[in-house]
Structures are given as structure tokens and as C-alpha cells.
Write a structure and sequence with these properties.
The protein is α/β, with parallel strands linked by helices. The protein has one domain: Rossmann fold (3-Layer(aba) Sandwich), CATH 3.40.50.620. Helix content is 47%, strand content 13%. The longest helix has 23 residues, at 170-192. It is globular, with a radius of gyration of 17 Å. The relative contact order is 0.16. The structure holds zinc ion. Zinc ion binds at residues 196-198, 200, 210-211, 213-214, 216-217.
């Protein structure tokens, strides 16, 4: 079985995961979720990223299969967060930012597994990361391993949840991209991928577009700076 389904949002992490999967698997499909996120611009970026990857890397173009887009507007109805409402991003007493949509990744992976089941894809690839993340409990390695077991049992089909970014920080995510696709892939990620929670694509920084202030921009900017100081970029 050398087929994978990548949870693909059009951001830096999921684009790096897509490149990682295209490097390893013979057939790779992608899945994205529209849940009324304020940074919906990432969905358009995702289509452009797929196009540019296929243009720049002919072997990957042969492996890249279809994209599945799922309407998850229900998520915006059941959760009040700064990702789906016009609210200021802030941190709660428990340390979680109000960008946290409870159980979002559980839902995403469960739906991805349902699509993967139908499409005959064994590996589910996601950009979850425990290293320098915002503290979302559904990004933790234990959560995802438990989910792998639950999905495999619940659908009576062996799924493997792959999280290539789990133990690396944002600087090493840029390094991974360079290892996979050279400086051309790093440049493609800087230019075409979107991370900013506010959906800002008007302000260009060295690391890409974004407001420069929100937690997603801060992580991306910090990682780029360390990557650059380490001899990359
Ligand atoms: Zn931002």
C-alpha cells in the first residue's frame, strides 16, 4: 500500500507534509475543510500550491491525485472561537489561545479516514506538531496515536496516521522543505502558502504574507528567522 491522503490547508505545515508524502508515496490525494474560518483565503492558496508543485516537480505531478474539499460550516456553529468569529486573538487562563476549536483535528482526521476508506488510501498525513505549537491537545502525539487505533478498529481497516512534523520545530520545518524540494520549494512555500489566522495577504514579509502579529504569524516568522540564522534562506 503506497497511497496517502494529506490533510491539506494550503499553509506552510501542510504544504511541507504534502511534499513529504509526494516524495514517499506513489499516489497522494489531498483533503481540505471549509469551516467558515476567517483565513478562508488559505483554501484558494491551497489550489495554487498544488498547481505550482505539479509544475515545478514533474515526478510529483504524476503522483498527485485529486483534492477533496469538505464543507464543515457546522464547526463554526458549534464553537465560538477567534478563528471563526470576528474576535481578538487572546489566551485563556488555561494557556490555550481562543483560536482553539475544540476537537477540530479529531473531526478532520475522522472525516479524512472516511474519505480514505472509500478511496482505498491507507496513510493519513497531517501537519500536527507538539514541538512549538499553540498547545492544542488534539495535536499531541498521544491523541493521534489513540485516534489511529480508534479509526482502524472502528472502520475495520488498517490506517496509519503520519505526522512528519510532530517532533521538529518551525526552523526545521523549513529545512525539511529544502531537503525535499530544494530552495525552489522553500520559495514556493514563502510565496504561496498561507498561515495567518486573520487572512492577511496584503503585507509581505521575508517569510511570506500575513499580519505579522497573530500566533500563526509569530510562529512562522520566528521559525524563518532561526532557519535563516542557521544557514538556510
Ligand atoms: Zn497573522
Amino acid at each position: 500500500m503506497t497511497e496517502a491522503l494529506v490533510l491539506f490547508s494550503g499553509g506552510q505545515d501542510s504544504t511541507t507534509c504534502l511534499a513529504w508524502a509526494l516524495d514517499r508515496f506513489e499516489h497522494v490525494e489531498t483533503i481540505g475543510f471549509d469551516y467558515g474560518q476567517r483565513h478562508r483565503v488559505e483554501l484558494a492558496c491551497g489550489a495554487r500550491v498544488r498547481e505550482r508543485l505539479a509544475q515545478a516537480y514533474p515526478i510529483w505531478a504524476q503522483r498527485l491525485g485529486e483534492h477533496h474539499n469538505l464543507d464543515l460550516s457546522i464547526l463554526g456553529h458549534i464553537s465560538e472561537t477567534a478563528l471563526t468569529r470576528d474576535a481578538t486573538i487572546a489566551f485563556s487562563a488555561g494557556g490555550l489561545p481562543n483560536t482553539f476549536v475544540p476537537g477540530r483535528n479529531l473531526l478532520f482526521l475522522t472525516l479524512a479516514a472516511a474519505v480514505a476508506y472509500r478511496r482505498g488510501l491507507k496513510h493519513l498525513v497531517g501537519g500536527m506538531c507538539e514541538t512549538d505549537y499553540s498547545g492544542y491537545p488534539d495535536c499531541r502525539d498521544d491523541t493521534l496515536k489513540a485516534l489511529q487505533v480508534a479509526l482502524s478498529l472502528g472502520m475495520d481497516r488498517r490506517f496509519v496516521v503520519e505526522t512528519p512534523l510532530m517532533w521538529i520545530d518551525k526552523a526545521r520545518t523549513w529545512m525539511l522543505a529544502r531537503d525535499l524540494g530544494g530552495d525552489g520549494l522553500v520559495d514556493l512555500i514563502r510565496e504561496e502558502t498561507h498561515s495567518c489566522y486573520l487572512g492577511d495577504r496584503g503585507t509581505r514579509h521575508e517569510w511570506g504574507y500575513g499580519c505579522g502579529e497573530c500566533p500563526a504569524c509569530a510562529l512562522r516568522a520566528g521559525g524563518w528567522e532561526r532557519y535563516r540564522l542557521g544557514g538556510g534562506g
